[in-house]
């Protein structure tokens, strides 16, 4: 089993990093033989899409010429292959201005590719990759879900929509909220309760991979 572990925060001691690490650690207690591959978008950001990539994907003809080996798509191909070999994806991300940080958007723009990970049909985008569980640990200074929500949430609807485009519909959100008002003890307690809440999904995953 392979776990793709992605972090998006530029801060090495951030709440989202600690949350994603806790998710991975719990997965490893359930599936101790799993291998973890790291992609640290926060500490080592990938490039945003450039002109060469946009040109390669601009028409069906240019896309056919680019294939999987043209220089313009090499990074995208590397990222897509990391996703393809994974059985589980764990993403740790802050909520930046109500939505995903730009480094995560850059990753999304590279892995969503017509003819490679999704197809365009009259009914909309159809994923070409097999579904797999995606655990998204979100750290937010404010509160965006639940009875105390006081700000909009454009992160989870967006991620659900774009991941569904490539075939990923089993998405579990783990929100660590109001971090601006938590000390480390409170944050650790909340992380533990959030991990306990998703243990049933992790146990189901373990059973499905046996």
Description:
This protein has 210 residues and is an alpha/beta fold. The chain has a single domain (2-209), classed as 3-Layer(aba) Sandwich (Rossmann fold), CATH 3.40.50.360. It contains seven helices and seven strands. The strands form two sheets. Strands 2-1-3-6-7 form a five-stranded parallel sheet, with helices on both faces. A two-stranded antiparallel ribbon has the order 4-5. Strand 4 and strand 5 (124-127) form a beta hairpin. Helix 1 runs parallel beside helix 7 (184-209).
Strand element count: 7
Biggest sheet layout: 5 strands, parallel
Low-confidence stretches: none
Proportion of β residues? 15-25%
Straight-line distance between termini = 10 Å
Reported CATH architecture: 3-Layer(aba) Sandwich
The CATH homologous superfamily is called: Flavodoxin domain
Give a quick set of tags describing it.
210 residues; alpha/beta; Rossmann fold; 5-stranded parallel β-sheet; 19% strand; globular
Quick overview of this protein structure:
By secondary structure, the chain is an alpha/beta fold.
Write the layout of secondary structure elements.
Blueprint: E1 2-7, H1 15-30, E2 35-40, H2 51-56, H3 60-66, H4 74-84, E3 88-94, H5 102-111, E4 118-121, E5 124-127, E6 134-139, H6 155-165, E7 171-176, H7 184-209
Parallel strand pairs: 1-2, 1-3, 3-6, 6-7
Antiparallel strand pairs: 4-5
């Amino acid at each position: 089993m392979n776990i793709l572990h992605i972090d998006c925060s530029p801060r090495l001691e951030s709440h989202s990093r600690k949350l994603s690490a806790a998710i991975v650690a719990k997965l490893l207690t359930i599936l101790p033989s799993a291998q973890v591959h790291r992609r640290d978008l926060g500490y080592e950001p990938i490039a945003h899409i450039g002109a060469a990539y946009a040109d390669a994907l601009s028409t069906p003809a240019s896309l056919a010429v680019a294939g999987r080996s043209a220089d313009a798509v090499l990074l995208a191909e590397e990222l897509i292959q990391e996703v393809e070999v994974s059985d589980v994806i764990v993403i740790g991300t802050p909520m930046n201005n109500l939505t995903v940080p730009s480094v995560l958007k850059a990753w999304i723009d590279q892995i969503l590719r017509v003819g490679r990970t999704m197809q365009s049909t009259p009914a909309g985008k159809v994923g070409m990759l097999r579904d797999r569980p995606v655990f998204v640990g979100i750290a937010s200074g404010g509160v965006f879900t639940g009875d105390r929500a006081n700000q909009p949430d454009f992160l989870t609807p967006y991620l659900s929509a774009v991941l569904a485009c490539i075939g990923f519909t089993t998405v579990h959100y783990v929100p660590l909220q109001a971090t601006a008002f938590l000390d480390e003890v409170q944050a650790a307690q909340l992380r533990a309760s959030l991990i306990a809440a998703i243990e049933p999904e992790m146990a189901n995953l373990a059973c499905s991979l046996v």
